[in-house]
Specification:
Low-confidence stretches: 1-26, 57-83, 92-119, 517-523
CATH topology of the largest domain: Nuclear Transport Factor 2, Chain: A
Mean pLDDT: 75
Shape: elongated
Largest sheet: 8 strands, antiparallel
Strand content: 25-35%
Number of domains: 4
Number of strands: 26
Helix content: 25-40%
CATH class of the largest domain: Alpha Beta
CATH architecture of the largest domain: Roll
Radius of gyration: 42 Å
Distance between the termini: 90 Å
């Protein structure tokens, strides 16, 4: 029988290179004059048969012993241009009853596994299945779900960011609209990130899911359901209050020293405000003083800081003074800070009505910086940057809040029938501060400025007794509430609890910062 080259031309587009080199040979290179195959052709076809048989033998052996020999055979067969991809194809052609079967569609191929006369047909079907496999892999790769991170740019919108990630305009509009139940898209800021997933939908890659972290607690999820409807829902992390303790020794400033110990800024500010009912932080704090504080913060279940709570216990130790204050909650829900003897930390007036200020001019005669002659200064000036918050020195009612001659912007608070405080040269008033408004001690009433007859940003602070200015440092005002009976007993229990918690937290901090002591404790 004469072997013609034409039938192999069809296969030449599908077969590996070494096979093509053989099949493209002219007939005289394949057969001798007597019609018998030349020796090199016998060797080549024998190799093809062995390769096919080897692949099926490996498959059968793997099925029997459960061991993967693909890589080992890949090393042996690489000289015949059998690649790892080819071996993956071969794994789809297991031996079943002496026939080859495609795993994809269970199609039984009409090729006897060990029939050398059908080697060419075997290769043809092998190639056909290989091409189908490779096409399938390309389709899977093309249509497999993909998730991308998109960062909001300056001037960007959520819809624009979605379209930049590959979402079509209609889906982008629908997704953003679905978000509005939980977030105003106009509030999106540069640098925020969104996670966008594209997946097959109606024959093309389309919007599937969006995740947007709006704050440390909330994540807005927008996704398309099995019916094609795009809707949103909210994922919220659990918030857990945690107690911490710290001790800071003053170096340059109390504020900076506490920050070095990891105390949140809000807790430091509250602690200073609580202590300022008895301590003048502008004049009475010295290097070597120490602050102890027990406080709580709110964190997510995965350890992300959310916000500060409040100090439970604050203690300031000085060379000749010690002041410890504890948070006490009344039965009616009110809270306040008290000494161990039950006396309220709140006095009639704050010693310093503005944070971070220095006294630039005291009460008494002075050379007036604007008028140029000696004049009685009937108040205390606190120099501070413009915009620094000013606090009400005590509970009371706003008597006036307006422009008042040389005082500039001016606030006056009536605390009782005999006692008033006044605040001058304000840059502006806090929201809601007007005549007749009731304020609490420590509430922000305005901001430091330099309005009126003033040479620089400062607060002019006055204390008026029966309508006349008096030296704020010499005015005696009644102290606050004193606990008795069951309330005092309740405070004592609270103090014991806070003292134990503080000691426990400080031990934990010490062990965490000293691995050697931690190991010793474990032993």
């Amino acid at each position: 029988m004469t072997v013609r080259s034409k039938p192999y031309t069809v296969l030449s587009k599908r077969l590996p290179l070494n096979i093509l080199n053989v099949l493209r040979m002219k007939e005289r290179y394949i057969r001798k004059r007597d019609g018998s195959l030349r020796m090199r052709c016998k060797a080549t076809f024998g190799t093809l048969f062995l390769l096919a048989s080897a692949g099926m033998a490996v498959q059968a052996y793997e099925a029997y012993v459960g061991v993967d020999f693909k890589m080992a055979y890949a090393q042996k067969l690489v000289t015949h241009e059998i690649t790892q991809a080819d071996l993956e194809i071969a794994s789809r052609l297991p031996v079943q009853s002496g026939k080859l079967v495609s795993k994809d569609n269970d199609e039984t191929l009409s090729i006897e596994a060990y029939d050398p006369d059908n080697t060419n047909e075997f290769l043809h079907n092998y190639t056909r299945i290989r091409e189908a496999f490779l096409d399938e892999e390309k389709i899977k790769e093309k249509f497999s779900p993909k998730t991308v991170k998109v960062s909001i740019k300056k001037g960007d919108t959520l819809a624009g960011a979605l379209q930049r990630s590959g979402v079509n305009g209609g889906d982008a509009y629908t997704a953003v609209k679905a978000m509005t139940e939980y977030f105003d898209p106009r509030l999106v800021r540069p640098g925020q990130n969104i996670s966008v997933t594209l997946a097959p939908y109606e024959g093309e890659m389309a919007f599937s899911k969006l995740e947007f972290v709006s704050d440390p607690i909330r994540t807005i999820v927008v996704e398309r359901d099995e019916n094609g409807v795009i809707d949103s829902h909210l994922q919220e992390k659990e918030i857990i209050p945690q107690i911490f303790a710290a001790k800071a020794t003053v170096e340059n400033s109390l504020y900076g020293s506490a920050m070095k110990q990891g105390v949140p800024e809000a807790i430091i500010a509250q602690s200073i405000r609580i202590l300022s009912w008895s301590i003048d932080f502008q004049r009475e704090i010295r290097a070597g003083d120490s602050l102890e504080v027990l406080y709580n913060v709110y964190m997510t279940d995965d350890g992300v800081y959310v916000r500060s709570g409040e100090p439970y216990y604050v203690k300031l130790t000085q060379k000749d003074n010690e002041l410890a204050l504890y948070l006490h909650e009344f039965d009616d829900g009110r809270t306040g800070y008290f000494r161990a003897n039950g006396h309220s930390a709140k006095k009639g007036l704050l010693s310093t009505p503005v944070d971070g200020a220095r006294i630039s001019s005291g009460y008494g005669m002075r050379h007036h910086p604007v008028l140029g002659y000696n004049k009685m200064h009937k108040g205390v000036d606190f120099a501070a940057p413009t915009g620094t918050p000013i606090y009400a020195a005590g509970d009371g009612v706003i008597a006036r809040a307006n422009r008042f001659g040389a005082y500039g912007n001016y606030v006056k608070i009536r605390h009782n029938k005999n006692l008033d405080t006044a605040y001058a040269h304000l840059n502006g008033f806090a929201k809601g501060i007007r005549a007749g408004t009731r304020v609490k001690q420590g509430q922000v009433i305005g901001y430091v400025g330099t309005t009126g007859r003033s040479t620089g940003a400062h607060l002019h602070y006055e204390v008026l007794v029966n309508g006349s200015q008096a030296n704020p440092r010499s005015v005696k005002v009644p102290t606050g509430e004193v606990l008795k009976g069951s309330e005092l007993a309740s405070l004592k229990k609270t103090i014991n609890k806070y003292d134990r918690q503080f000691a426990s937290q400080m031990r934990s901090r010490k062990m965490a910062s000293n691995p050697q002591s931690k190991n010793t404790a474990n032993n």
